[in-house]
Please model this.
Amino acid sequence: MPNTKGAKKRLRQSIVRRDRNRTQKTRFRHSLTKFRKAVSGNNLDEAKELMVATSRLLDKAAAKGIIHPNKAARLKSRMSHLVVARSS
Model:
């Protein structure tokens, strides 16, 4: 438990930030899951739309420091490879 006034404030701030970050992470994880289901079901049109939307979510999360920028790039690369592999 925090003892000083400043430590109490930091605790409040970290709780708010944790909830905000958790929401963003959940959002792009769910989007990735929808994308993977669309690819596995050979629904390429939907997969391409979901890829664009998920890429935006990943970029936003990386810009806000929720995930590492290299992780966002890696996930986007893997998504595009899946779409290309299924379309050919």
User: Anything to note?
Assistant: The two ends are 58 Å apart (CA to CA). The mean pLDDT is 95.
